Amino acid sequence: MAATRGKAWTFGDHINTESILGSGKEENWESAMDGVLAYYDPEFPKQVQKGDFIVAGRNFGASSGRPAGEILKAKGVKAIICNSASMVFYRNTWNIGLPVLQCPGILAKVAKGDEIEVDVESGAIKLLKTGESLQAEETPWILLEIYRQGGMLGWVKSRRSEYKTLEQTG
Q: Where exactly does CATH 3.20.19.10 map onto the chain?
């Protein structure tokens, strides 16, 4: 897959899943879509565009396993690039085909609205305003395979013949 360009939406440290969703809204998809990350930036749910990126600080997605990544993906977020991510959030988002790249120091170099170019496969990040290139930490190969298949369900379906129990389920 090639690098893609988009606008950066910036958020700080310790952004938790309850605040991403708006606590209690995960049962009401429309409400969650209308309020995603509004606690931190009221413009985000109204103005985020398909292909935009989230750039954040440390421990993005902290707290619970709520489906915050699903809402972000549905809003069109292409990837999340952060100094670090909560491990539960990190794995859950890759499982739905929304990549999280960990790139320590990224938040200090990107401002809200900056155009960036991201290659999820290689982890290369280019800051178009300055021309600076950054490198995210290496993503485990299995997560890249899951991403290429559109998420865990696609990955499992692509391997159906490898598992006799899956062959029986049709």
A: 4-138
